[in-house]
Amino acid sequence: MRDHETRFEDTCEITGVTNAISVLGEILTFNEKNLIIATINRSAKVTLRWNPHVELYCGSLGGVEFTSPGPKSQTYSTHR
Q1: Alpha-carbon distance 73 to 68, whole Å?
Q2: pTM reported for the whole predicted model
Q3: What's the confidence (pLDDT) of residue 3?
Q4: Confidence at residue 45, expressed as pLDDT on a 0 to 100 scale
Q5: pLDDT digit string (tens) for 36-51?
Q6: Angle at 71 between CA 50 and CA 53, to 5 degrees
Q7: What is the CA radius of gyration of the chain?
């Protein structure tokens, strides 16, 4: 019997909305299509919530808005 397992990377691209600069964020907490809590440069912690209208995670920190498509995923076939 084959099952499929999806694994997500522990980093994601986070982009500033106004300046369009992207950085790599380290994910602390991830819940697919719900929430990402990540650190930027290991110093600033940002919370991004899933927005189904734009299909991105969105949030703000210090008055700056950020978006992220979330971490990349890979799906594996597993044998049981």
Answers
A1: 14
A2: 0.88
A3: 84
A4: 96
A5: 999 998 899 999 999 9
A6: 25
A7: 14
| DSSP character string of 53-69 | TTTEEEEEETTEEEEE-
CA distances from residue 41 to 4, 32, 50, 60, 66 in whole angstroms, order as listed: 33, 23, 22, 16, 15
Q: How far, CA to CA in Å, does 12 sit from each of 22, 49, 66, 78?
A: 10, 14, 12, 25
The DSSP 8-state label assigned to residue 18 in this structure reads T
Q: 4, 17 in Cβ contact below 8 A? A: no
- For residues 14 and 23, the answer to whether their CB atoms sit within 8 Å is yes
Each domain of the chain, given as residue ranges in start order, spans 2-79
Cβ 49 vs Cβ 61: under 8 Å: no
CA distances from 37 to 1, 10, 19, 79 (A): 35, 11, 21, 32
